[in-house]
Amino acid sequence: MQHKQRHTKTSRDIVTIEDLTNDEIMKIFSLADIFLETMGTGNEGTSRRIRGVTPWAKGFILATLFYEPSTRTRFSFESAMQRLGGSVVTAADPSTTSVTKGETIADTVRVLESYADAIVLRHPFEGAARVAADYTDIPVVNAGDGGHEHPTQTLCDLYTLQKKNKTLAGLNVLLYGDLKNGRTIHSLIYALARFGACIIAVPGTPGLELPTHVHTRLREEYGCDLTTSKNTADLPMKQVDVVYVTPTKPHQLALLDTEELKIEISLPKIDIFYVTRPQRERDHDTAFQNYPSVDRNFLSNNRFRDASVLHPLPRVDELSYEIDEDRRGIYFQQAAYGVPVRMALLAALLHLDEARDFAITKQPEENSERQVYSAELGLKCDNSRCITHHPNESAYLTPTFTYRTPQSLRCVYCEHELQPAFIGNSTTRKYTSCLSKRIKSKHLVCFSNEQQARDRGFELYKTQRSESEKVLT
Ligand code: NCD
């Protein structure tokens, strides 16, 4: 079956952080503020815990489907739905569902839409939430799909930062830990770029740098200027991966001639220190050694004097219990905000009457340049953790890519980039290995190897013209 087009669906899904505009995020935060003001415990302005129940979602049911362990995300979603006056049906343990009999995501969600008004899904494969969203008419919220994204954790992170700092623009945010496999990092980094923060990415150990497709996207789609630097200056970390400066700081961009200068400019002080754990369960290739633990000594550097320390939790040993008592550690507050933020998101997605001013309705504008290319010829996503490689799901999913340039396609499920080995023109029936050729996307056909091209009756493109003049259109 082909990848379904999203505009056929009237309700909204939150599969990636890109599914929400900055305005919508702010709208959700305003509603979360209302929940804290009216249902929060503690003094006005400092409350973070919700108590009691409102009747707003009476009669609504949320289905939570967790195919991976969870404490904060599942409990806070379920608590949020119940405090909104709605109820929850859940599968916290997939072994109790028909998935053990081989039932697919597509079938599960098409059944669940008759039982519930929205679905929250966590799954170990990247792109699983996209599949769920494509096969049901009710809203689907991604509660983490493998190492891909975790957009509602980002909402909690941003809400915490906004409460602390009022604005994100111009803040120096250090993202530390497993940048490769951490889905919370991937959603957060795009949001930080959009809100104009300066991002410093520091892997916990070599090999855990940001994935290439995330780098590419920050540079090409978010206009981030970035540089790699080995200058550790007086930082306790061994290696700074990259420093991203968003275009909201043009005065800085103008000064970024040398790495030295950039580090000096970008790291005067850290406002936010976002720590993540090594995701050992997702990565059997990396030796998770020398992953420095963040403790008082680590934070004694003057750069961290006023930094807020955040962590999506759970922690293992990368964040010392010492910091719990430190004024800078605000991760339990961050976890507590999970309830008001998720209450606001659910109220907005379900179009609850009382939340009508906050309803999230219109789909974000689709970029007309982006075209979906379905790989009928067996072109496969090369990310082994992509949902298109799942033994059950692969039976009905067609690997599908967004056409970026002839050199690069993006998997619509896991968003990894793929470079085809050969490209062809479906009208002229010619193929070539020269990926710089311009072929209109509607005529573009991609092949993993030459044999595939020949099997489809394509012939090798030959020309007398110079390489630079070759155009296959
Ligand atoms: C994170 C997750 O599941 O991605 N936890 C969470 O949802 N708060 C972080 C992690 O597991 O490391």
Present the secondary structure layout:
Layout: H1 22-39, E1 61-66, H2 72-83, E2 87-91, H3 105-112, E3 118-123, H4 128-134, E4 140-145, H5 151-165, E5 172-177, H6 183-194, E6 198-203, H7 212-220, E7 225-228, E8 242-245, H8 250-253, H9 259-266, E9 272-275, E10 308-310, H10 331-336, H11 338-349, E11 371-374, E12 400-405, E13 408-411, E14 417-418, E15 422-425, E16 430-432, E17 444-447, H12 450-455, E18 459-460
Parallel strand pairs: 1-2, 1-3, 3-4, 5-6, 5-9, 9-10, 16-18
Antiparallel strand pairs: 6-8, 7-8, 11-12, 12-13, 13-14, 15-16, 15-17
Helix pairs in contact: 1-11, 2-11, 3-4, 5-6
This protein binds N-carbamoyl-L-aspartate.
Would you give an account of this structure?
Helix 1 (22-39) packs across helix 11 (338-349). The chain has helices at residues 22-39, 72-83, 105-112, 128-134, 151-165, 183-194, 212-220, 250-253, 259-266, 331-336, 338-349, 450-455; strands spanning 61-66, 87-91, 118-123, 140-145, 172-177, 198-203, 225-228, 242-245, 272-275, 308-310, 371-374, 400-405, 408-411, 417-418, 422-425, 430-432, 444-447, 459-460. By secondary structure, the chain is an alpha/beta fold. It binds N-carbamoyl-L-aspartate. N-carbamoyl-L-aspartate (NCD) is lined by residues 72-73, 144, 150, 153, 183-184, 276-277, 312-313. N-carbamoyl-L-aspartate binds at residues 72-73, 144, 150, 153, 183-184, 276-277, 312-313.
